[in-house]
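// run 5 | inverse folding | seed 20
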């Protein structure tokens, strides 16, 4: 549960800088391997989650809800920890 809380806090910190108008981004890693990257777009108040696979390919997903974004990141990090 504390890991999920940490993810939510990082996403909230991205929202707090929205007055600057700059796109904020954070990476989520396990054992030095980047599993995903999230960007926050202040103009639309949305998140873009980019998920990387082992072959350096990625898929992008859009979210307008911080909780759903956090749960998706949590699941990705959990899978990466168990691999």
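// decoded
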């Amino acid at each position: 549960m504390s890991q999920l809380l940490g993810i939510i806090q990082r996403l909230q910190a991205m929202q707090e800088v929205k007055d600057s108008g700059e796109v904020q981004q954070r990476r989520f890693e396990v054992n030095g391997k980047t599993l995903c990257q999230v960007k926050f777009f202040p103009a639309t108040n949305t998140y873009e989650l980019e998920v990387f696979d082992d072959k350096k390919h990625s898929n992008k997903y859009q979210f307008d809800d911080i909780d759903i974004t956090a749960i998706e990141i949590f699941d990705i990090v959990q899978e990466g920890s168990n691999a």
